[in-house]
Write a structure and sequence with these properties.
The complex is a heterodimer. Chain A is of the alpha+beta class. Chain A folds into 3 domains: 114 residues, Orthogonal Bundle (Butyryl-Coa Dehydrogenase, subunit A, domain 1); 103 residues, Beta Barrel (Butyryl-CoA Dehydrogenase, subunit A, domain 2), CATH 2.40.110.10; 145 residues, Butyryl-CoA Dehydrogenase, subunit A, domain 3 (Up-down Bundle), CATH 1.20.140. In chain A, strand 4 and strand 5 form a beta hairpin. The model of chain A has no long low-confidence stretch (mean pLDDT 96). Chain B is an alpha+beta fold. Chain B folds into 3 domains: 94 residues, Orthogonal Bundle (Butyryl-Coa Dehydrogenase, subunit A, domain 1); 110 residues, Butyryl-CoA Dehydrogenase, subunit A, domain 2 (Beta Barrel); 141 residues, Butyryl-CoA Dehydrogenase, subunit A, domain 3. Helices cover 43% and strands 15% of the residues of chain B. Chain B has a 4-stranded mixed beta sheet. In chain B, helix 1 packs across helix 3, helix 4 runs antiparallel to helix 6 and helix 7 packs parallel to helix 9. Chain B starts with a helix and ends in a 5-residue tail after the last helix. Classes of the chains: A alpha+beta, B alpha+beta. At the A-B interface, helix 7, strand 10, helix 8, helix 9 and helix 11 of A face helix 7, strand 10, helix 8, helix 9 and helix 11 of B.
């Protein structure tokens, strides 16, 4: 499959760039941040994006989607990443949406998937627990089957796009079969569910979930009972590619801002970009970004065609993006020097976003370990 | 698409029939390839037969025009040929500076006479070429070269010293940069690209012993060498333009040799050599490399190698899609060579005490080979423009940073 953009993809890229620049510049992110917005994103803008078809890109036409794929989705993610637009694509579309789409038939699935596809519902997936690191199996939440319903207990942390979500997909272990995971859909108003906003350095929408005897009917099991690990892992892979696309946009923008600074900031009577010490650093960052881009494009296409290499390419994309975004952001602060330390300069926002993005779904070290494991060494 | 499928079938059948069985499954790198020239010693009858058959079909230079000995293939067809050769794991029938560097330059800048004279001989592997660029006083600052070419009627009389001329003692021809305008202000504008017959009595090549103990390069002395004016490629004083075009080809060639182009497009290549070396020397725990730090480094090298291959593929795909790309050959050269060096360094680390032998008892052939490869890899970030020069090129031509 070609790693170049086809004409339809180029058109999507242009539309996305124009729209995000116009409607969701970094200034809007700052406004939300400064007024301590409880959602951290604009629901009205999300509805507009859904109207452009962005929430349906990954899903088939039978569910109201566009029947496109990850190759198209990452184009949108890149533009969102450039302007730090905090829309709930990674949690809602990438994690929850793909889990619902692959979970077989059922009324619950149909209803919530349609809502995700048309943008009318926000669903979050609570894959992480405090104390766990990056493994899917780090789940301590418990599910007990009592009187015809599952009763859930446990706590989840760093749940992406959870504030303002209409429902949550919660992985838990059955008390009588602790070796297996099951995914449960819990509506936001379920008794015993507490959602508490977490504050991250990058102001991503994120929450802590506490489940105290939350009851969940069997019809709200997503996928099959005790067979949730694979579904969860594949959804995390999907969301990892979305996140990698967003990171690619973020690092590209931070790098371009830095290049601009190097061309315009004058010291010793010349633009600082004329100094070889800085030129070489910029050239190395450029190479890292180019390699990250190739990896993200390849991972997206591998998922689209169910390639045997898909899992490894997803790890390649996330490892390269984690390392490259962190390096670009660190270097960007140093090259912006004093200005880079101020809140008024956007570079600090990218620095913090890079650091948070690095840890979500596993850092570079985690993904190199995963690559080695999948490669048989 | 059907015609391409037909072409693939035809290529496969032809290779199956004509490629010597002895060479199938032996795919080698460029350094182990057939470099050609009148002094070339074939290592087997199969090697000679393979070259002759491929040259007969024009497939030593698949995409060059048929009239000059090439195969006249479209880019997609050349890609198919390369893929089919890979599937039989066949070595290239012929390698060297003729095919990779001067050939493409003559196709673009050469006169009809130059093309007709040199290209068919290159395709048949009859002529080996060396490169006369660097001088004792002109390394990274190539434009400061001092070799003088003074016009005398229909000839130039050339005097000077060229350095790092690969295989000059085994080559029939040299493509060289010489100074035709001696005025101090001329710099790049005073440089001319010229073809020198190495059989001229004024040419003397002296091999240089390197840190590896080998002598791949020469210092070549030019003393009153007479070269006809018609051997100038492009215009007199326009050599720098030609040199830059050729350096692009050289960087791609070096990147190819260091592995950046290998296996691109197919499944993810596994670095079996590195992983099994690590398991042998550092032990295995449940199938994993026993040393966690080395395991992480092996994975990093395999992954980075995959990422650079994908970038090469992306460049090619963009070209096929008609999208313009920048001077990206600098990326491949700069990144690919450092990656290759990291891999060699890691192999040395894995071998540990077995990595320090030069010969004699106590070392296996594989140990000695790894050590030699490590020493030779030091040249990769130097030849064809140092990494520092590549980074300058990216900064200027891609990123637009000021001088």
């Amino acid at each position: 499959m070609s790693l170049a953009l086809n004409s339809e993809q180029s058109l999507i890229a242009r539309t996305a760039r124009d729209f995000v620049r116009e409607e969701s510049p970094v200034a809007s992110f700052r406004t939300l941040r400064d007024r301590d917005d409880p959602l951290g994103y604009s629901r009205a803008l999300y509805t507009q994006m859904a109207g452009l078809g962005w929430t349906g890109i990954l899903f088939d036409e039978a569910h109201g989607g566009a029947g496109l794929g990850f190759a198209e989705m990452i184009i949108i993610m890149e533009e969102l990443g450039r302007s730090l637009a905090p829309q709930p694509f990674i949690g809602c579309v990438g994690l929850a949406g793909t889990a619902l789409a692959r979970s077989g038939a059922g009324e619950t699935k149909e209803k919530w998937l349609r809502g995700v596809v048309d943008g009318s519902r926000i669903v979050a997936l609570a894959h992480h627990e405090r104390g766990g690191r990056h493994d899917v199996v780090d789940v301590g939440a418990r599910a007990e089957f009592r009187d015809g319903v599952f009763v859930l207990n446990g706590a989840k942390s760093l749940v992406l796009d959870a504030c303002g979500a209409d429902a949550f997909i919660v992985p838990a272990r059955a008390v009588d079969a602790p070796g297996a995971l099951t995914l449960f859909l819990v509506e936001a108003n379920a008794p015993g569910l507490k959602v508490e906003r977490q504050r991250l350095i990058d102001h991503r929408n994120c929450a802590l979930l506490e489940l105290t005897n939350v009851s969940c009917p069997a019809s709200n099991v997503i996928g099959e009972v005790h067979r949730g690990s694979d579904l969860l892992e594949r959804s995390i892979e999907a969301a990892t590619v979305l996140l990698s696309g967003e990171m690619l946009g973020g690092m590209s923008q931070a790098f371009e801002l830095t290049l601009h600074h190097m061309k315009t900031r004058v010291q010793f009577g010349v633009p600082i970009g004329s100094f070889q010490a800085l030129k070489h650093r910029a050239s190395r960052l450029f190479m890292d970004i180019e390699l990250a881009r190739s990896a993200v494009l390849a991972a997206a296409r591998a998922l689209d065609c169910n390639s045997n290499d898909a899992s490894r390419l997803v790890s390649l994309a996330k490892a390269r993006c984690s390392d490259a975004y962190k390096l670009v952001a660190n270097e960007a602060v140093q090259i912006h020097a004093g200005m880079g330390m101020t809140d008024a300069c956007d570079i600090g926002l990218y620095l913090k976003r890079a650091r948070v993005s690095e840890t979500i779904f596993g850092d570079a070290r985690h993904h190199r370990n995963r690559w080695a494991q999948l490669s048989g060494y | 698409m059907t015609s391409q499928n037909n072409f693939r079938e035809e290529v496969r059948a032809w290779l199956n029939e004509n490629a010597p069985d002895a060479l199938k499954g032996t795919s080698a790198g460029m350094l182990d390839g057939v470099w050609g020239g009148r002094r070339w010693q074939f290592r087997s009858a199969a090697e000679k037969q393979w070259l002759e058959r491929m040259a007969g079909r024009g497939w030593t230079a698949p995409s060059w025009p048929k009239e000059y000995g090439g195969g006249g293939l479209l880019p997609e067809q050349a890609q198919i040929l390369s893929e089919e050769m890979k599937s039989f794991r066949l070595p290239p029938p012929l390698v060297g500076f003729g095919l990779a560097m001067i050939g493409p330059v003559l196709l673009r800048f050469g006169t009809e006479e130059q093309k007709a004279r040199h290209l068919p001989a290159i395709c048949r592997g009859e002529i080996r070429w060396c490169q006369g660029y660097s001088e004792p006083g002109a390394g990274s600052d190539l434009a400061s070269l001092q070799t003088r070419a003074v016009r005398e009627g229909d000839h130039f009389i050339i005097n000077g010293t060229k350095l790092w001329t690969s295989g000059a003692d085994r080559s029939e021809w040299m493509f060289a940069l010489v100074r035709t305008d001696q005025s101090p202000s001329a710099r790049q504008k005073g440089i001319t690209f010229i073809l020198i017959d190495m059989s001229d009595p004024g040419v003397a090549a002296s091999p240089i012993r390197l840190i590896s103990g080998e002598s791949d390069f020469c210092e070549t002395y030019l003393t009153d060498v007479r070269v006809p004016v018609e051997n100038v490629v492009h215009e007199i004083g326009e050599g720098w333009t030609v040199a830059k075009a050729l350096l692009g080809h050289e960087r791609i060639m070096i990147a190819e040799e260091t592995g950046a182009h290998k296996n691109s497009g197919g499944a993810i290549p596994a670095d079996v050599e590195l992983t099994s070396l690590a398991k042998t020397h550092l032990g295995e725990i449940a199938g994993r490399i026993g040393d966690q730090v080395v395991r992480d480094q092996v994975a990093a090298i395999e992954m980075d190698s995959c990422a650079i291959s994908l970038t090469v593929q992306r460049t090619r795909d963009a070209e096929l899609a008609g999208q313009a790309m920048g001077p990206e050959s600098s990326i491949f050269k700069a990144y690919g060579t450092e990656l290759s060096q990291r891999r060699n360094e890691l192999k040395m680390h894995i071998l540990g005490p077995q990595s320090v032998g030069e010969g004699g008892p106590g070392f296996d052939a594989d140990d000695l080979e790894a050590t030699l490869a490590w020493l030779k890899s030091k040249a990769e970030t130097i030849g064809g423009g140092t990494t520092e020069i590549q980074l300058n090129v990216i900064a200027k031509r891609v990123l637009g940073l000021p001088d």
